[in-house]
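[Target chain]
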Amino acid sequence: MTEWTEEKRRTMRRAALAGGVGTLIEYYDFSLYGYLAVVIAPLFFPSGDPVVSLLASLAVFATGYLIRPIGGVFFGYLGDRFGRRRALLVTLLSMGTSSTLLGILPTHAQAGLAATVLLIVIRMLQGFSAGGEVGGSATVIAESTPARLKATYGAFTPFGATGGFALAAAVAGLVSGLTTHEQMISWGWRLPFLLALPLTLFCLWIRTRVAETHGTTARRTGSPLVALLRKPAPLVQASLVSLGVNGTAYVGLTYLSIHLIQRLHYPPTPVYWLATAAIGITTLTIPFAGRLGDRIGPVRLYALGSAGFVVLAYPAIAVMGKGLGIAAIAYVVFQLSSAATQVGAYTVLPQLFGPDTRYTGVATGWNIGVVIGGGSAPFLAVWLIQRTGNVLAPAWFVIANAVIGLAVAFWIHRSGRVSSGPARTDGVRAVHSEIPG
């Protein structure tokens, strides 16, 4: 049994802070493009039809998701073979650099087709970088944390990820509110991207202070991905856990504001701030979900959030047409279940893998679920409405993914890879010492 010293407590806190703050900054950078897509579209994809410009801009937004699994495999290999901290520093620098470059990128009017090509390349670099972030953050925090606090500190990763979405929405809204339409198109859209530079430097300072959690004895030759594919059950479980999280949460993060504006005809400005508030409130509840996870166990916490979506998704979306105030409450209620699923997932995933494949397993599994359930969420929601003629059809997409979440939680419970109940309190052991290598 390992004695939990004050030095180890400092290591744990630094790892949690570095993981949470770094994830917040990376997801701020990654999601900012989506919030500013309407402004960016005509600047880089000029067309006589503004819808065509927007669709082209959103297609580039999607490429950032499609390339994420490749980033997960690359940074997973780097983290499993050469150390977690090195991988997290590289992914942070890559994301910060690409976002800063986007802020100084010439427009189509200034550089022609080259500007459009550079935008696509930068967006792909952002997606590549994001593919390695959450897997590394969750891994480092898990390997620095005692069993009895694994969900409490594991909550720092989803806190940062969800907070990054909220921060991006707030900064975009603030800059839009402080500039005229002409100023926003001319130079205002660049400011949120340029903010990435000081944020990256701040996080870089924090991450250089994090202790390495992957010992040299664990660094072996060969591909971690190949090792995972030889015994694929944990990777399949991780992918399904991610699908259950992202196929539900991303409807709230990316689709519901479109639903409120286009389907229910609420004015855009209050809807954007409503979305910011709902996502922000969800972010604030994540630490409480972490404490609950340490009381009931992360698998049960994940199942609880999935069950919440099954029960609440349809009525929450159904009442959103009864006034903006009711829509705001329903939006918050809808999003709250994601606090439980996210904390449960980020705590469970590192425990599915041994130390030599953990970074790769978490990053790859998570990104597969993001591509299938997250990146497709707004498209499938709109497609379902068009196919069925039912404005509430997206709720069934959410429920289907939540049912998948419940099923994989039961599978993990039966497999015994992760304890479904609370951690023992008669001693403190590092998470990675409990997981079979």
About this structure: The two ends are 18 Å apart (CA to CA). Residues 6-209+232-427 form a domain with the Growth Hormone; Chain: A; fold (CATH 1.20.1250.20). The first helix runs from residue 6 to 35. The CA atoms of residues 297 and 421 lie 4 Å apart.
